[in-house]
């Protein structure tokens, strides 16, 4: 049986992959703390723990996503307005590789 909170968290994580679709201005990759801050804001009232947010932020930071895509994650105001087709081919491939690590981050603690 799937855990209801895990299902919502996975959907939130998948939505975050979608948001990494456009390039933004700037020259450096956002920090893990910056990424975590955006995750916390986007998570709203879902039950994503601090440890899970740290794991998600580190996964994005360590990913093969371009710095521009990660910056867009931090700067995005509305992830629902972003389309996966907006990703560069490289970021599309990198985002597909992120699915399993993100799901692992959101798995319930045993």
What secondary-structure arrangement, pairings included, does this model have?
Blueprint: H1 4-19, H2 32-43, H3 50-62, H4 67-75, H5 89-106
Keywords:
0% strand
Question: What report would you give on this structure?
Answer:
This protein is 62% helix and 0% strand. The protein is mainly α and 110 residues long. Helix 1 runs antiparallel to helix 5 (89-106), helix 2 (32-43) packs across helix 3 (50-62) and helix 3 runs antiparallel to helix 5 (89-106).
Report how far the terminal alpha carbons are from each other.
15 Å
CA-atom Rg in angstroms = 13 Å
Number of strands: 0
| Envelope shape | globular
Can I get a quick summary?
This protein is 62% helix and 0% strand.
């Amino acid at each position: 049986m799937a855990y209801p909170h895990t299902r919502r968290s996975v959907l939130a994580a998948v939505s975050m992959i979608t948001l990494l679709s456009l390039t933004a201005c700037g020259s450096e990759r956002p920090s893990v703390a910056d990424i975590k801050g955006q995750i916390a804001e986007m998570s709203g009232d879902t039950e994503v723990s601090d440890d899970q947010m740290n794991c998600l932020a580190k996964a994005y930071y360590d990913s093969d996503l371009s710095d521009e895509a990660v910056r867009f994650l931090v700067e995005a105001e509305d992830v629902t307005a972003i389309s996966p087709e907006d990703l560069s081919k490289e970021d599309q491939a990198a985002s597909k590789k992120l699915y399993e690590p993100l799901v692992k981050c959101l798995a319930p603690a045993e």
